[in-house]
Each structure stands twice: as structure tokens, then as C-alpha cells.
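Researcher: I'm preparing a figure for a lab meeting and need a structural model of a single chain. I don't have an experimental structure, so a prediction will have to do for now. The sequence is pasted below. Please return the structure as C-alpha cells so I can convert it later.
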Amino acid sequence: MKKLFKNPEPGDKIEIIVKGKSHQGILLESHEQGVLLLKLRSGYNTGYKKEDIKEIKLLEKKQEKKKKKEKRISGKKPVIDFYLTGGTISSKLDPSTGGVKWLIDADELFSIYPEIFEIANIRVKSPFMKASENMDFRDWQRLSRMIGKSLNDSNVRGVIISHGTDFLHYTAGVLSFMLKNLNKPVVLTYSQRSSDRGSSDSRLNLKCSAYAALSDIAEVILVGHANLDDEYCYALQGNKCRKMHSSRRDTFRPINCKPVAKIFSNGNIDIIRDYKKRNKNKVEVDSVFDNKIALIKFYPGQSPDILDYYMKNKYKGIVIEMSGLGHVITEGENNWIPKLKEIIKKGILVFAAPQTLYGRLDPNVYSPGRKLQEIGVVFLEDILPETAFVKLGWVLGHELWRGSVMTKQKMLENINKEFNNRLDEGFLV
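Model: Understood. Here is the structure written out cell by cell.
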């Protein structure tokens, strides 16, 4: 049995025979004694007891990739600044561990996704590499400042940001406020499945993102699969879309509005609705943010005592995801009215966002909404809760906008199409 393990090394393609059945895949480094770990063609890792393996065949040795020496900035193609920030799309398979590791430079990006280098000259930048759940407002600030420089560079045609999916809509939302007087496309994109899997969505998403970055759509947009097939991508308004499925490739959906466009892998773009066009503005980076804010999801029977935490720790504003048209408990032992009145009197601003996502809040239909409005809760129409959260942090980051009246006024102002007067629900998942 020991002789079988002399030649194959982690990264080699092998075939093993277990209980009369053949299994092929990439040999991975195993940290469990007596177990051979194999990455199958399906993309999944499977362990086999070495004592059950009757035969091992070496099919293909691991190929050591040489660095690419192609000159990719030729002056003949338009320039796109590409920001690697993390997530599945910014990673690659590590054959020695079976996991993924971050891409680090243009050579690695080129080795996996050479197609986008054929569309444009790609300048790869990496302000940080993080899973999206590990990001915070400081990462948003740093990213916005770097993107602002790219947008004000006359040599740059557009910007792409690769990002993890889980909190991508937070970043897309906050960039729509931090980047003012936008002049070129700012495209965020993602991958639900790693590049080594046959069902990966990364290749189509990146090609469509490159074409979007070269388009005339001067907005913060999110580009990704429009359906389960590799047909085309949607360009979605950054502050009115949301991750709606844990694993589907078309996870991001527009909320209360239509997509901006369909983008095809051959470069064709079908415009669906109006958008801000490319222009010669000088982009202003307005990256202030106050993180003493919170987003609370209301649930049945919830005690209002949770609000004591935010009062004790001197929070400045709270967004509450309310049920239906904008409701929380307003009677009985867990009545929220007294506690909300108390924290509002202490200076904490309270805003309501729709837990339903689709549709609009209306406090005037039922008495609970009327009671909440009377004590000073501000209802934010059809805004997404995540967009309300990042907008509140951004608004409070402006010293001149602080204070009850001014902050409420700014939160209700339609600064970058975060409110939609005419709702479109034709894209419900």
C-alpha cells in the first residue's frame, strides 16, 4: 500500500479504485492520518480511507504555472481599474489544502480570467482582501477614496470591484452616497461558486462587468447572473438590490425597481430603464461615516428593552425593520411606544424601513403606524433596510447635518434614487 503513495503529490490528477469503483480528481494535502483527500470534478472534496484504496494511478502531474509576461497595458485598449477586495471571485483553488486562497496580483487574475484582458487593459489594485462579513465602514472609506482617484484619472474608462456576496449590497449602497457627481461606471461584481468549478458564475460575471465598465452607465451598479443559465447578466442599481438566495448564481435581485440593463458576453447591452450617462464631472469623494448606528429587525413578542443597550452606549441613530406597512408592538407588556419615546427624547433618531423589502411603508393606514409617527419615528418609504443603515451612517458623518431636523430632512431626501416613487415588482424572486 505504501508504494502507491510514492509518486502522486498534492495538486496531481489521479485515479483511485475503491471497492471496485473508479474515482478521479485532484489529490489534496490531508491533515487527517490514514485519509486520502480528493477534489472531484464536481468541485467537492471527498476523503477516502487509505486502507480501502486498492490502486492509485497518476493521470497528470501538477503543472507549475509560469508568470505571464504579456504586456497588458498597450495603449490600444481602454483602461479599467480593477479592485480586488475579497470574496470567492477574488480567490483560487489551493491544491495543497483543498481550500481557496486570495489572488494577489494581475498575473494571477490573468491566469484565471484572461478573457477580460482581451476586452480592456486591466490595472489590478488591492486595497485589502477580506471576506465581506469582515468589512466595516473604514474599508468603505478607503475603497471610496481609491475609486475616486481612478474616476478622476482621464486615462481610466471605468472601475470594477470584485467583492464577497454576503454584504455586497451594503458596499454598493454606501458607495452610491460616498461618490458624488459620478462620471463613469462603478461596477461591483461577485461569484457564488469558485473558478475551479464547472458551474462557476465568475467568468460570465467578469466579462459582463468589463463591458459595463466601458459603457455609458455612470452609476454605481452591481453586475451578475440574471438567471440560472449563462445567458446574460443584469446591471442593477447599487442601492436598490439585495442578495436573495444563499447559493443561486442569480442571487442578486432588484427591489422595487427594474434592472438598468441586460449585458451579454459578446458586449451587447440592452438598456431597460433610464440611467445617468457618462460625463466629464470631477468626482467628489464624500467618505464621512458615523458608526454609532444600528439596524434592528423587529420580531413578534420582542421586548423593547433591547433599546436600552443603544441608549446606554450613546448611539445616535437606529433603523428598525418593521413589519407590514410599518408596525411594532404598541400595546400590552412589550409595548414599544414608551421606550421609543424615551430614547428619542435622549436624542437617538429612529427610522423605520420595510421588513418585507418589496413595497412601501405607510404609517397612516393602521393605528400602530400613526402612534409611531406621532412620537417621532420617521418612515423611510420603500428604502432597503441595508441602504437606510449605510445612508444614516453617512448622513450623521456630516457635522452640519447632525441634529433632529437636519438629519431627518437628509434621510428623507432622495439623494441617489434610493427612493422610488413608482414601484416595479415585476422582478420578484
